Amino acid sequence: MIVVLTGAPGAGKGTQADMLAEKIGLKKLSTGDALRKHVKEGTDIGKIAGAIMERGELVPDDVLFKILKAELDGVKADQIVLLDGYPRNLSQAETLQTLKDRHPVKAAIHLDVDRSALISRLSGRRVCGSCGATYHVSTNPSKKEGICDKCGGELAQRKDDKPESVAVRLDVFEKTTRPILEFYGARGLYKQVKGEGLPSEIYERLSKLIKAI
Ligand code: AP5
Ligand code: MG
Questions:
Q1: Which of 30, 50, 56, 199 could form a disulfide with 165 if both were Cys (CB 3.0 to 4.6 A apart)?
Q2: What is the DSSP pairing of strand 155-156 with strand 190-194?
Q3: Ligand with the closest atom to the CA of 133
Q4: How far apart are the CA of 120 and the centre of ligand 2, in A?
């Protein structure tokens, strides 16, 4: 079964999905992470996606469907999948419904964060180029500047965290992704969680909700 974790860029989807995967064993499936892997490896998908992602726009739906299918095919029937970053428009939400016999969506949880907080989170984010661990220069800094605490890899800013791309991403979220909240609301699956506060506090809110599903 699937729990959709949605929210604007910088809402903390990745941070929370990592905590939920580690602490309660959910399987995290991030379409953004999968796409970045393709870009890094220079695959055909990566060649299509790289420039689009850097501008902050959405990668075409057919590419995302291939990624989604490939990731879900490896999932065991009794595993709870936390979907981070999919669906991102109504067409993707409809597509996900077509897989409902094997992968029913049980809830769509929206992490709600104020726009000014999103901008400061994204401008200060640093990511490890080796293991993908995420930091923030002021709220969650690494012990040694520029070096990952977990693996010693080098930390860098994501290419789409520059201000021009952030503005596009926030706009895309409002115009194209926000309508999925109503889509899930109409099906009785929508839940909202306050995404501000300490990551540990937000984790408590989310895990309580997910355990009740
Ligand atoms: P994706 O990688 O999914 O990016 P996003 O949705 O823009 O979200 P982010 O990863 O930027 O933010 P997050 O919510 O994970 O926040 P995080 O935990 O890192 O997608 C990238 C691109 O891929 C898209 O723009 C698109 O081009 C493409 N793509 C992906 N999926 C697609 C799809 N389905 N269809 C089409 N295209 C697709 O936290 C952010 C920062 O805040 C970090 O520094 C963190 O340390 C900090 N932080 C986290 N929690 C807190 C807290 N509680 N308090 C203070 N700081 C916090
Ligand atoms: Mg993320």
A1: 56
A2: unpaired
A3: 1
A4: 15
